[in-house]
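lol ok so funny story. i was supposed to be doing the assay writeup but got distracted and ended up predicting the structure for this chain instead. priorities right. anyway since i did it might as well share w the group, maybe its usefull for someone
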Amino acid sequence: MRDPARILIADDSQDNRELLRARLEAHGYELLQAADGEEALAQAQQHLPDLILLDVMMPKLDGFEVCRRLKGNQKLPYIPIILVTAKSDSKDIVTGLDAGGDEYLTKPIDHASLVARVRSILRTKALHDQVQAQAAELADWNRTLEERVRSQLAQIEGMDRLKRFLAPQVAELVSRGDDRLLRSHRRDIVAVMCDLRGFTAFAETGEPEDVIALLQDYHQRVVPIVFRYEGTIERFLGDGVLVFFNDPFPCDDPAQRAVRMASDMRSAVREMAEAWRRRGQSIGFGVGIAQGYATIGQVGFEGRVEYSAVGTVMNLAARLSDEAADGQILLSPRVAAAVESIATLSPTRELVLKGISRPIQAFNLDAMRG
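and the output, tada:
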């Protein structure tokens, strides 16, 4: 409600209007006047007073009809109405209240009664406006909250979609719009290649449903281990999983993380292989781990993006994995040197690997110490 309050005096008698004006003006109210029902209706719709003192007996439209039309207009805010009339019959009072009147004064009007009624009605108007304002603020806050919830849900859904193709830490960077770490760059990483032994033969002879079930079982066991050690999944290659460490987020111990992860994977797949062996399927597991520099960045197109690493280190890890027997984890010399304090290792014979120009002295991860 505005301050000072705006009051519309509607009466066909100028003397009555002047009398009411004189009595109310002393209290600092802003006053408007109307001489008939139609003018009262027009003034109310145009100026939206905080209170109307409305005479009942007026030309063109009587006070009851003006009251009905104002109260029936849903576009208007709450405007309290005090009906003022010489009629004191109880039927007229009922008619006025039914028409929407909030108070009733009879002529001649007592000054003290007039001022008291006006103050009382204006307090009600102020409280009503306060409640309406608070309701509007609450509605606006709810709309804002709904928009924030929708935005967060969209981000979560977007993150879930990204996680289908990217490691969680990479997907989080993309979802935040921070792609600086995803731009092409060169970094020293530890690459891990692991795959199943006997899977190709199984895929050739097994039912497609069994092949898919095996892959799902395998991925459900090893992928959580990758995420636990904060590795970045470069790609899935059928039964092969290619992971690297030290990018996009650097870590102090990439080789040790990679070796611990591979050891946990070996234990997990050993349990899985035993379950499949009881079903008549012979499945094994081998891992190759290498360390070296690679060029890393986003590759693909708008509909499908992968975060890939390119370099000899990736090829070396894959070739060591190819060479590994069931249950064997083969390490390159740099990885072996970085983990000898936490693992028991044994050297292999020099390996001649496809795509690698010189023979490699690899090391077998026998066990983790402690």
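The mean pLDDT is 87. Residues 111-163 form the longest helix (53 residues).
back to the writeup now i swear
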